[in-house]
Amino acid sequence: MTTAVRFDGVSRHFGSVKAVDAVDLAIGEGEFFAMLGPSGSGKTTCLRLIAGFEQPTAGEIEIFGSPAGGVPPYRRNVNTVFQDYALFPHLSVMDNVAYGLMIKGVGKAERRRAAEATLEMVRLTGYGSRKPSQLSGGQRQRVALARALINKPKVLLLDEPLGALDLKLREDMQEELKVLQRSLGITFVFVTHDQGEALSMADRVAVFDQGKIRQIGTPQEIYQQPTSAFVANFVGSSNVLPADLVAQLGSGHAQASLRPEAIRLVSAGGHPAEIIATSFVGAATKLALQMGDIRLHALIDHRTHDCEVGQQVLIDWNPEDLHLMDGGDE
Amino acid sequence: MRSDKRSGAPTGLKIAAAAGLAFMHLPILLILVYAFTTEDKTYQWPPPGLTLKWFAVTWNRPDVWEALQLSVRVASISTAIALVLGTLCAAAVVRTKFFGREAISLIVILPIALPGIITGISLRSAFNIADIPFSFWTIVLGHATFCVVVVYNNAVARFRRTSGSLIEASMDLGANGFQTFRYVVLPNIATALLAGGMLAFALSFDEVIVTTFTAGQQATLPIWMLEELVRPRQRPVTNVVAMVVILVTFLPILAAYYLTRDGDQVAGHGR
Amino acid sequence: MSNVAITSQPRGDGILARLSDALWRRPTLFLVLLLAPPALWLGIIYLGSLFALLAQSFFSIDEFSGLINYEFTLKTYRELFIPANLDIIIRTTLMATCVTLGAAVLAFPIAYYAARYARGKWKALFYLGVMLPLWSSYLVKVYAWKLILAKEGILNWIFEVLHLTWALEAYLAIPLIGGNSLSVSYSGTFLVFLYVWLPFMVLPMQASLERVSASYLEASADLGAKPLQTFRLVLLPLALPGIIAGSIFTFSLTLGDYIIPQIVGSSRLFIGQAVYTHQGTAGNIPLAAAFTVVPVVIMGFYLWMAKRQGAFDAL
């Protein structure tokens, strides 16, 4: 597989703030790659480094094998869907979409035809003569997408593109983006702080924290085998067991993660705990459990168990569900 | 019965506000009446009769035409210079954070924040020291200096309102710096610049304090008027000129208001 | 830049495009290029002149030859404190204070009504109603008052029609504020100043009143305050930043003006007129320069006081 984007020890420091700190990264061609992390973790800065809006203070970025240092954004075959869409307010939807072609010097009739075709692809046929201010949030989002895709970029960068949409629309767009990416075969690099979005859409996910990548892997790897407490907490609300408890259980001396659905209620053996809260989440009931000094979350099938707040229960899990973490962070 | 508190203002307040507005406008309206009076030796009220003949007299006065022409030329050139300098300055201050940004804003505002007489006498003594004779350009030098702030205020307000990612979006789509300026920046700030330019024109067209120090023997329209004010010689002509000046300055101000009314504050403090 | 993978812009090799590349790679140079023209213009022409003037205030004039003596001295500044000059400074400062107070009182109802009650069309009308007088010709406005205050003018006519001429005469008989007629009295000068600078008070005051939510006033009334108490305890403190911002204009503009007191008023000098005469007919540039420092110092002190009172925090 060709590497679309490669980061080699890339840092971007703003004064004493290390927005991106010695990041190594390789994104394959045709991949749907998500950068996940809390705000201020450096994921958006990484995106801006690829687009060319920021320059690394150290390290090298390569785009399809050629160094990107000193190459201005307008000379990179990379396009961006901005968080606030950044549609040109003085231009019609048609002219917005055709902007890149106009700059390239494509003739008026041809770029009009191309813009209409692209608008059709994002299901906005007939909206060409409107101004961006006359569109809804979801429609603007799709214009921004069309405006980027019409240039046939090698890499499409999406900066929290669904952040401003409401839940239903967001779910529809997630599907639509995935289908679009599969059919076009373009490399998508997608920035989000929503772990559900990252896990459900991406082929691979990089989890960012404080300017560094904490873990890179497929959604399954990230979800089931978080390598640090930060990833476990941020990605899946996993339970994190402290090292001394893990040692007590005889599973080695390190922090370990335990998925809520791996915990089951047992009638004998296991560990005593008290149910301190319950909440209904569709197919299951989510329990908050107090076991000694630690708080655990568990997902329990409510057809098999009655759970009352205050009830004393015994809980257990399979030893292989306990994932030891190298625990690089505090 | 009690009146609806939300919609109605207390009568006292209404009267005071109306009286205040009247105080601001009646003297200007008075000028319009005086332009038609038949009396030519005193400021007699009520006018003994009304006539249009002073318009014809004024029309045929070469000194008024010369002064008007000089004023328009000075205002046009000063506005052009202020447009360039004010826009450059606004772009620099808004786009980037750099050391001394506050100082730059202060220097731009200083020429109107300090009394005009200070600007005027400073320039005059500087011209003296540098041995520069008074000319059309010495007037322009002074006017452009205090006009910059009006353009600057309008441009900064618009830049702030325009999303910074528009420029990035344009470059992302393949436009270089100049294309981005031509196709994205300029269309988005055009009305603000037009408004700023009109206000700058009005400001320069009307300026008298700095001009008295930088004009030497030349007379702009305000200088012509000032001489008439100090030593009235042709009251009816002055009345007509005053009326024309009022009407001429109203138009750009109204236009500037309509150009910037959605969102921007017209830089009213810019004087 | 011929790398196929990165660039695909066919029109990327013009002179402008290459210039754009160069500037993009050197953002500091680009910033310097943007800033240089305005910074040079204002720095050399404006600040340069200002400092040249300031420097001259430290020279003195030779009393016999009338030539400037280019030696550092504070003699000129001492001259500011002789009684005649001190009178000028005190007179001007007092006038500026009165004009500022008068403008605040007159502006408040306009600003408050526009901020609190005017809506839609009326709001626009109020705004233009203040903007138009603000921007219309200064000289024409002064001229209008010359017409109004003239002996045969409209004000005397109104008093006559109302049979109140005796009241006007009684007022003019009051020492200090009175005089032979309104047009040669301090009251006349005050009126014209007030008129010309009033819009400069209304706009910032209205801006600060816009930020006072009506619910504060209702809360105050709800807690038992009488209207006057609400005004004093809630509205006034919240509106203060705007009043101070406006007062900076009215105060500073009055301090530096030399045309209004020359056209309407007694023959006694204000700071602006003193500067004008010293630099003009008298040719005493050092003293004129020293005089211009006075409003700057007073304004500096005024701003410092305002800042200490925390008036800028809310701006």
Summarize the structure.
The complex is a heterotrimer of chains A (330), B (271) and C (315). With 271 residues, chain B is mainly α. Chain B is built from eleven helices and no strands.
Can you give a write-up of this model?
The complex is a heterotrimer of chains A (330), B (271) and C (315). Chain A has 330 residues and is α+β, with helices and mostly antiparallel strands. Chain A has 3 domains: 1-77 and 153-224, Rossmann fold (3-Layer(aba) Sandwich); 91-147, no CATH class; 232-324, OB fold (Dihydrolipoamide Acetyltransferase, E2P), CATH 2.40.50. Chain A has 9 helices and 18 strands. In chain A, the strands form 4 sheets. Chain A has a 6-stranded mixed β-sheet, with helices on both faces. A 5-stranded antiparallel β-sheet of chain A has the order 13-17-14-15-16, with no helix packed on it. In chain A, helix 3 (108-121) crosses helix 4 (137-149). Chain A starts with a strand and ends in a 6-residue tail after the last strand. The mean pLDDT of chain A is 88. By secondary structure, chain B is mostly helical. Chain B has one domain (62-260): MetI-like (MetI-like fold), CATH 1.10.3720. The model of chain B is unreliable at 1-6 and 263-271 (pLDDT under 50). Chain C folds into 2 domains: 15-45, no CATH class; 79-308, Orthogonal Bundle (MetI-like fold). Chain C contains 14 helices and 2 strands. Chain C has a two-stranded antiparallel sheet. The two termini of chain C are 50 Å apart. At the B-C interface, helix 1, helix 3, helix 4, helix 5 and helix 6 of B face helix 1, helix 2, helix 4, helix 5 and helix 6 of C.
